[in-house]
Amino acid sequence: MTSKAKKLLERMRISKTGWKRKDLDDLYLGFGFTITHGKSHDIVKHPRFPTLRTTLPRHSFLAKGYVEFAIKLVDKLLESEEAENENKSQAKS
Description:
The chain is of the alpha+beta class. The chain has one domain. The chain is about 55% helix and about 15% strand. The protein has a 3-stranded antiparallel β-sheet with strand order 1-2-3, with helices on one face. Helix 1 (about 5-15) packs across helix 2. The two termini are about 25 Å apart.
């Protein structure tokens, strides 16, 4: 994850309106998600945690719900990574 993505996430937590599609792309890519083009929407998923996935429309401006879901999805990623690291450290003990 990049520091730019972390800062973007914090700004999105403060205000969930007025964000563009490019902003969500930057957030998802900064946290290691991949974005592939589907027919009418793009598909966002994480390579290490395939259950973390969503779709995005190709509109310039996005509804508040897309930003809210992006925040939740990134939070789930951070929790999953933390649990994975915890399991690794317990396995070493």
